[in-house]
Design a protein that fits this description.
The complex is a heterodimer of chains A (about 120) and B (about 180). Chain A has about 120 residues and is of the alpha+beta class. In chain A, about 45% of the residues lie in helices and about 25% in strands. Chain B folds into two domains: about 110 residues, Orthogonal Bundle (Rna Polymerase Sigma Factor, Chain: A); about 70 residues, Arc Repressor Mutant, subunit A (Orthogonal Bundle). The chains are: A alpha+beta (about 120), B mainly alpha (about 180). At the A-B interface, α1, α3 and α4 of A face α2, α3, α5, α6 and α8 of B.
Chain lengths: ~120, ~180
């Protein structure tokens, strides 16, 4: 039979289910017969839930993070079109970047940049 | 139940390894899938270590770039997640040192406060977590958020198993005090 102090050291991993089978059985056997250690299990479960909820509640990453990563990992431009000229006063550009922001189109009129479209991959972020 | 959980974990690890192998061959689509599987977890790990949102986001970037450049060097001796968190840990501590030396200017403020009680409670827990020494909160994160065993944590951090247990023991006591 394990001692309470040995069991309590393992309880965080017991509630998480990450002990190996033999240790998990030993802890379960002890806890079944020890009221004080049952309270420790309940406290560890509460703590686990609180920590997970707190971290899950952090704001998610924006798509900007992925775009920056693609810029640094060589997100290859697989198509780029530029039409018009400075002299004519307008320029239309469109590009497709593989693995990054799939499509983006800009119209430049008399020095003003107007975003025509930007289609993000999957649209999930 | 445990059997199903182990089998799910095994399938997830297998998929992680397949993805990483494709990333090593330069498959950009696989990098995106890899990012979707790991980026938020790395963000939370980095946030647990650093408690600075802008630095945590930088750690995600640095880690994913390192994965892209170094996927071929993954030796398969640990879980993919352990390898990724090892990279993130190095990057986090490096960014922290640079910030302390003043080489880097903070760019993005933390989240706006939200008065909802659930959010207040989460803030309170995060604050309690941040009051722990870095080595203790790291063990709490790897145990309760990533579900690593104490043996895996010991291997990932290159410390004795007894040290992992001792860090958790002290962290648990302090967190319990802070959260009552």
């Amino acid at each position: 039979m394990m001692r309470c102090e040995d069991v309590r050291e393992l309880i965080p991993w017991y509630v998480e289910g990450s002990l190996d089978a033999e240790e998990a059985r030993a802890v379960a056997g002890h806890v079944a017969a020890c009221e004080a250690c049952v309270r420790e299990v309940a406290a560890a479960l509460r703590m686990r839930t609180e920590v997970r909820n707190a971290l899950d509640g952090l704001p998610r990453l924006s798509e900007k993070t992925w775009v920056r990563i693609r810029e640094r990992t060589g997100g290859r431009s697989i198509a780029r079109i530029d039409v018009g000229s400075f002299l004519l006063g307008f320029r239309l550009g469109a590009s497709v970047v593989r693995g990054g922001v799939p499509m983006r189109g800009d119209l430049q009129v008399l020095g003003q940049n107007i975003k025509l479209f930007e289609r993000r991959r999957g649209g999930s972020r | 139940m445990a059997g199903w959980a182990e089998s799910d974990a095994g399938a997830a690890e297998l998929e992680d390894r397949r993805l990483l192998a494709r990333v090593a061959r330069g498959d950009e689509d696989s990098l995106r899938v890899f990012y979707d599987r790991f980026a938020e977890r790395v963000l939370r790990y980095a946030y647990t270590l650093l408690h600075r949102r802008h630095l945590a986001e930088d750690v995600v970037q640095e880690t994913m770039v390192a994965v892209w450049n170094g996927a071929g060097r993954f030796g398969g001796r640990s879980k993919v997640s352990t390898w990724v968190f090892g990279i993130a840990r190095h990057r986090a501590l490096d960014l922290l040192r640079r910030e302390i030396r003043g080489e880097r200017v903070p760019d993005v403020p933390l989240t706006l406060p939200d008065p909802a009680p659930a959010v207040e409670r989460r803030e309170h827990v995060l604050s309690a977590l941040s009051s722990l020494p870095e080595d203790q909160r790291e063990v709490v994160f790897l145990t309760f958020y990533e579900g690593l065993s104490y043996k895996e944590i010991a291997a990932a951090l290159a410390i004795p198993e007894g040290t992992v247990k001792s860090r958790m023991f002290h962290a648990k006591r302090k967190l319990a005090e802070a959260l009552t």
